[in-house]
Amino acid sequence: MDLAWISVGALIIAVTLSMVTTINVGVVCLAFAWIVGVLLGGMSSGDVLEGFPIQLFVTLVGVTLLFSMARGNGTLERVTERAVRLCRGHTGVLPVMFFFLALGLSTIGPGSIGATALLAPPAMAVAHRTGIPFLLMAIMIGNGALAGSLSPFSPTGVVANSVMARMGFPGLEWQTFINNILGHSLVAFGGYALLGGLRLFGKNRPANSGAADMPVKPLEPRHWLTVVLIGLLLVAVIGFEFEVGLTALTAATILTFSRAADEKDAIHGMPWGVILMVTGVTVLITLMEKTQGLALFTDLLVRMSTTETVTAVVAFVTGVVSVYSSTSGVVLPAFLPTVPGLVERLGGLNPIAVASAMNVGSHLVDLSPLSTTGALCLAGLPAGVDSQNLFNKLLAWGLSMTVVGAIVCWLMFGQTTWFV
Hints:
By secondary structure, the chain is mainly alpha-helical. It has one domain (3-414). 73% of the residues lie in helices and 0% in strands. The chain contains 21 helices and no strands. Helix 1 (3-20) packs across helix 16 (310-324), helix 6 runs antiparallel to helix 7 (111-130) and helix 8 (134-147) crosses helix 20. The longest helix is centred in the C-terminal third of the chain and has 28 residues, at 387-414. The radius of gyration is 21 Å and the shape is globular.
C-alpha cells in the first residue's frame, strides 16, 4: 500500500482513538510516526524526529509554568476576588462581568482551561446565591474563556499560531485572536439574551446576597511580584517582540529564586498531557507532509466542499471532531495544515478565512460537558445541586454549536471580508 495512504490511515486512527478513549494521542502518534516512517518508509529516526516542534515545546512549557505558579501562589485567585466585588448586587451584570474576567484571564496566559478552572467555582456559587440560571453563567464563563484561548500567550493560541506560521502564514496572531473573540462574543451574548439573560437586569439583589459578601484575601508581596512580572511579559512580547516562551521561563525563574512560588508544585500542575499530545500529533502531521499523505487528507475535505461552502464545512467538521477530541492537541494540528491545499484546489479562497473558520468552529463546541471547559463548569456547581440537569443542557448546547458554529463561520468568513 502507498505510504501516503498509510500515513493518512494512521492519522484517522489516532483521531478516532482521541474521540473514543482516554489514551494520550500524542504517544500513539509518536509510535505511528516511527512505524510508518522508519519501519515501513525506510527513514531514519532522525528524519522522523525532525518534525518535533522544539520552539512550540519551549513556548508551551514557559507559558504554562509561569501561570501554574501564578495559580499556585494564589495571585489569580486574589485578582478574581477583587473583580467579582465590582458588581455588588447587580444580578444581570454578574454573568457579563464573568465573561470579560474569563476572557482577560484566558488571554494573558492560562488559556480556557486554566481560566475556567479558576472561575467556575466562585461563579457558580454566585449564581446559586443570586438566582442566576447555571446554564447562563456557564455560557458566559465558558465562552469568555474560550474567546481568549487563541491569544498569542495562551497554550492553544501558541499551537494555532505555530501551525499557521509553518503553513506560510506568520504574523497573524492578533487577527486570529480577534476573530475568535468576535465569534464567541456573538454566540455568548446571543445565547445570553435568548435564554433569559436580559430579564436579570431587572433583578437587583441585596448587597450581601451574592458577589459583595465574597471574602477578599490580601495581596502579599509575592502576589504583587507575580502581577508585575506578568505585566512585564505582556509589554516585552507585545511592545518589543520578545520570544514569549523564553521570556515566560525567565519570569518563572525570578519567582522561583525570590521564593514567590513553589517550582515543584508548579511543574507538577502543568498540563503535561496536553503538551505531549500537541507535540506528538505535530510529529505525525510533519511525517504526513513528507509522505504526501497530507495532500490525500486535504482531498477528503475538498470533496465535501465548494468555494461558497468551505468555511461552513470545515467549521462543522472540526466542531464535530472537537466535541469528542482535544481542540489544541488534535483538531488544530491535524486540520490547519490542510488550508493551503484547500485554497489551491478550490481556488478563489482567502486562506485566513478558512483557517479562522477552523479555529472558531472547533472552539465553539468546547462548552459541551464532554470537553474540559464544559466539564469544569459542571464541576464548579455547589455541593447539593443536581448536576444532571446542567449536564444535559450543556450537552445540548455543545452539540448544537456544530451547526451554529458552521452558520456563524459562514457568515463571518464566507460571506464578508470584514473579519479577514
